[in-house]
Amino acid sequence: MSVSSQNLSQAAFEQAPNEGSNRPIWLVPALHWMMAALIITAFIIGKNMEDLPRDQRLSVLGWHILVGLSVLGLFLPRIIAVIANSRIATAKTGRVQDKANFAAWIMQGILYVLMLAIPLTGLTAMTTIGRNFPVLGLFSLPNFANNHQLHEVMEGIHGTMATVMIILAGLHGVAALWHHFVLKDDVLRRYLPGKG
Ligand code: HEM
Ligand code: HEM
């Protein structure tokens, strides 16, 4: 990797450095890892529920929906935490945090969009089946329509976007590991517990 592309790649992750510690506020990585775990869990359940017998499938789908809705519920707090972190860093350093690497910025933007669009398409698919859907006896998803075509389209888009997201998140994770083990910078360390 050339020096300039290395610098560019390094700058990619320097999104909101705090002067001194260079770490984001703890809530940002906490929500990041929590949501990454939930997304991967929802994906694994989603990919494995199709072939199950009907009685098991309904309860496994319930778990899938519960985990998926947690992603949706944490989305807004995460966005608020990321924006607050950026403002705190700007106040500390006295300069606006720049988005130094366009590619990394776009990648993170796409991941945010998918994080929102995947649960919403799942929710649309589940509220167009013509009846309420009880989720593990905890609550019921409402029924807005009996629209088989819309249900099928949403299910298809949902599954495709989930696969795209896992691939992109994988590439993003590999980039973070590259920074840690090859470039030996603090990009990943800033997102891990500890000092410095
Ligand atoms: C489903 C899995 C994942 C998703 C959806 C995801 C998404 C994101 C997003 C949207 C950001 C922007 C900042 C934020 O919101 O916190 C981010 C930052 C980050 N991610 Fe992930 N991520 C995932 C998995 C991973 C994994 C597996 C790793 C490491 C192996 C990783 C390492 C990082 C690091 C180090 C940052 C900070 C980058 C910076 O400061 O600009 N992520 N991630
Ligand atoms: C980030 C959260 C989520 C992820 C990563 C995810 C992922 C997946 C995956 C990978 C599949 C299998 C697709 C296939 O193989 O074609 C699937 C199916 C499905 N998901 Fe999700 N999902 C999430 C959230 C949700 C939510 C919130 C709901 C509903 C409220 C939902 C409802 C469904 C439904 C109805 C199916 C189709 C089930 C079937 O064909 O039997 N998902 N999801």
From TrEMBL:
Alphabetic keyword roster: Cell membrane, Electron transport, Heme, Iron, Membrane, Metal-binding, Transmembrane, Transmembrane helix, Transport
Compartment list: Cell membrane
Cofactor(s) needed for function: heme b
Keyword Iron annotated: yes
Keyword Magnesium: no
Transmembrane region(s): 25-45, 65-84, 105-129, 161-183
Domain Cytochrome b561 bacterial/Ni-hydrogenase, residue spans: 28-194
Main location: membrane
Highest taxon in the source lineage: Bacteria
InterPro entries referenced in this protein's UniProt entry, alphabetically: Cyt_b561_bac/Ni-Hgenase, Cytochrome_b561_oxidase, Di-haem_cyt_TM
Cited Pfam families: Ni_hydr_CYTB
SUPFAM superfamilies linked: Transmembrane di-heme cytochromes
Membrane-protein topology: Multi-pass membrane protein
Assigned protein family: Belongs to the cytochrome b561 family.
Protein name: Cytochrome b561 bacterial/Ni-hydrogenase domain-containing protein
